[in-house]
Amino acid sequence: MDEKTAALAPVKPSGAYDVGAVEDFEFDVVKIFELEIGSVGVVRTSRGFYAVRNRCPHMGAPVCRGRFGGTNVTSEPDDLVYGFREDVIRCPWHGLEFHMSTGESVYGMTKGRLITYTVDIEDGRVLVSRRRGGNARPSTSS
Ligand code: FES
């Protein structure tokens, strides 16, 4: 489900980390990288790439080891509606869920949020910015 690699140093003058080629990433599988800025989970979705710090704001769990996908969303009684596809990571310790696109918890279940990083694609390479992003934005290429 995930993959660890040796700590990577930034490769770009901007301080971005090259975490691999686009084709090295399966869709909807979170890969974990040990970067100089800490452990970071990166996922490729149909909307682009997202990257977040691999640390749950609740009690510090390696959140990126949790299940990635969607979640049940508010619906009418007795209906079961699945939504937020390709956006939600579920913490493996206590089950809080977060949007990888923004870092915010699903339905504001907790005030804490994941630290997000901008991902850019250059020449087919996946570059994770070392600067924290308020909101991650999907890369233009998937
Ligand atoms: S540590 Fe993640 S939900 Fe508690």
Defining traits:
142 residues; mainly beta; Rieske Iron-sulfur Protein; six-stranded antiparallel sheet; three-stranded antiparallel sheet; 9 strands; 42% strand; binds FE2/S2 (inorganic) cluster
Detailed description of the structure:
The chain has 142 residues and is mainly beta. It has a single domain (17-133), classed as Rieske Iron-sulfur Protein, CATH 2.102.10.10. It is 0% helix and 42% strand. The chain contains no helices and 9 strands. It has strands at residues 17-21, 31-35, 38-45, 48-53, 67-73, 81-90, 97-99, 116-122, 125-133. The chain has a 6-stranded antiparallel beta sheet, with no helix packed on it. A hairpin with a 2-residue loop joins strand 2 (31-35) and strand 3 (38-45). It is globular. The two termini are 19 Å apart. The protein binds FE2/S2 (inorganic) cluster.
